[in-house]
Structures are given as structure tokens and as C-alpha cells.
Amino acid sequence: MHVLVLQGPNLNRLGKRDPRFYGTHPLTEVTSQIDTRAGELGVKVDHVQANCEGRLIDWLQEHQDDADAIICNPAGLTNYGLSLRDALSDTGLDLAIVHLSNPLGREPWRREDVFAEIADLYLAGAGWHGYVMALDGLHVRAADRT
């Protein structure tokens, strides 16, 4: 199994940016936790983080043909990233959307998530653990099909 992990705008600031919502672990530690779990499952994982929607789409389109599933935290694109949403949907791959915090429990403008309706798995509010949970869930979904 091969999983792509896309991290949206501002996630490069994890560990420094508002830790009460996003935690104290930097993105390098989050990536390491994902990689550790992927190794335990025998899953290959490729990562990208970008502050630009177009960069995420370009990377996705370059890598999607060799992948089986996607984990995406759209971050700052959550409310309006329709181009990324369409690109993710167009892959036809299993998709887990992860949010470190719970957008429904925050400011009203954060509550609309244009990615929610295309997600096979949706995890919010579990911090960095949400990524590992998403990886486990995608792995189970793939195993159930075989």
C-alpha cells in the first residue's frame, strides 16, 4: 500500500502556531509518527507540505498514479480550496481528511469544510494522532477489499 500525505498552508508552523489548537509537536515530529506507524503496517508514505494550493495540486497529480490512498489536512484551504478538493476527488483514491483541532467547535467561519463530503474518513480534534488513526483506517479499508 502507498499513501500520500498532503499538508496544507501554515502546517509548517506546527509547534509554534497556537499550540492550544494545533499542539506542540512540529511537523517533522508528526511526519515521523506517521512514518513509524506506516513502517509497522508495511505501508509506503510520501509527504508534502505547501502554503500554496497549486503546489499541492501539482504534487498530487505527479504522484497519484502510484498511490492507493491519500491523507490530507487542507488546513487554511478548508473553507474554500475547491481546486484542491476537485483534484483529490478526481484521483478516485480513498481519502482521509484530518484536522488537528475540531473546526466545528471553533469560530463560525471555520465550520464549513468543502472537503468533508468527499472524505471516506474524517478525523477532527485528535491532534497529530488523527494522522495515525487515518493511516490505520485507510489500511483497514484496503484490507477489507482484498
Automatic annotation (TrEMBL):
InterPro entries for this protein: DHquinase_II, DHquinase_II_CS, DHquinase_II_sf
Superkingdom, natural source: Bacteria
GO biological process, any: chorismate biosynthetic process
Annotated EC: 4.2.1.10
Keyword line: Amino-acid biosynthesis, Aromatic amino acid biosynthesis, Lyase
Residues given in the record as substrate binding sites: N73, D86, L100, S101, R110
Catalytic residues as annotated in Swiss-Prot or TrEMBL: Y22, H99
The keyword Kinase is assigned to this record: no
Pathway: Metabolic intermediate biosynthesis; chorismate biosynthesis; chorismate from D-erythrose 4-phosphate and phosphoenolpyruvate: step 3/7
Catalytic activity: 3-dehydroquinate = 3-dehydroshikimate + H2O
Pfam families: DHquinase_II (PF01220)
Protein's UniProt keywords contain Nucleotidyltransferase: no
Residue numbers marked as site, Transition state stabilizer: R17
One GO molecular-function entry: 3-dehydroquinate dehydratase activity
Uppermost EC category: lyase
Family from the record: Belongs to the type-II 3-dehydroquinase family.
PANTHER family: CATABOLIC 3-DEHYDROQUINASE (PTHR21272:SF3)
Subunit-structure text: Homododecamer.
Function summary: Catalyzes a trans-dehydration via an enolate intermediate.
Name recorded for this polypeptide: 3-dehydroquinate dehydratase
Gene designation per UniProt: aroQ
